[in-house]
Amino acid sequence: RGGAARGGAMLPPAGVRERVRAVHGGAALPELLRRYDGWAGRYEQDVAALEYRAPHLAAASLAFAFPAPPAGARVLDVGCGTGLVARELQRRGFGCLHGVDGSAGMLERARGTGLYRQLQRCVLGREPLPGPAEHYDAVTVVGALGEGQVPCSALPELLRVTKPGGFLCLTTRSNPSNLRYKAELEAALQRLEQQGAWQKVLAQEVERWERATEEEESVQGTGYISGVVYIYRKCPVPPLEEG
């Protein structure tokens, strides 16, 4: 049963809240990956209960920013989980998807979708991404940039595998317990922009990102937390073609 939050908003079921807390609780990496492996079988059910909108919002934003027909574009889905982002990207015409995740259990689920041409295990922040430099037309990191997850120091590695003119689609949460990380992330994003590594295309705050798992995380007692989608374009950005 969910508990009531202020303003009458209900919290998600206790089991869902416990599993979310387990992966955001700052566990050491081997333990964190074990928790994700154990969660893989229930993950999609749980995020549906949370009304988790990040995969949909991120894919819609990337599709909107993307200038070319996306069918042949090579996209790397970092922290791909069970394939929720791939499903949304495929719906929008992206056909060449590669995925990486640190959890073998999650990758197994992603493999079962048949949406990815290539899937590899990789713990971003601890090891380089598989793939040569300037290889991808777009790179997505949806849901993995947060407190106790992927460190902000991994941003240059995301840039490395993106083609010049390619897009990076990143998301993070704006709930109280993630605000310190979000401030660090935005400072790192800005630094890279000042260095001329990329240009900001979009930063969109979204109020109903997902249901809150704790009362004190909820936006003004709505029962939801907010989040943000960022789209950046790697420099040098190719000039617009004439005609």
Report on this structure.
The structure is a single chain. Helix content is 33%, strand content 24%. The chain is α/β, with parallel strands linked by helices and 243 residues long. The protein has a single domain (14-234), classed as Vaccinia Virus protein VP39 (Rossmann fold, 3-Layer(aba) Sandwich), CATH 3.40.50. It has a 7-stranded mixed beta sheet, with helices on both faces. α4 runs parallel beside α5 (84-91). The longest helix is centred in the last third of the chain and has 16 residues, at 179-194. It is globular and about 55 Å long. The termini are far apart. Residues 1-7 have low confidence and may be disordered.
Our measurement of the CA-to-CA distance between the termini, rounded to an integer number of angstroms, reads 60 Å
Q: How many domains would you count in the coordinates?
A: 1
Structural class: alpha/beta
CATH topology-level name: Rossmann fold
Name the CATH architecture.
3-Layer(aba) Sandwich
InterPro entries: SAM-dependent_MTases_sf
Protein name: MET27 protein
Organism: Asarcornis scutulata
Pfam family, one: Methyltransf_23
Please summarize what this structure is.
This protein is α/β, with parallel strands linked by helices and about 240 residues long. Helices cover about 35% and strands about 25% of the residues.
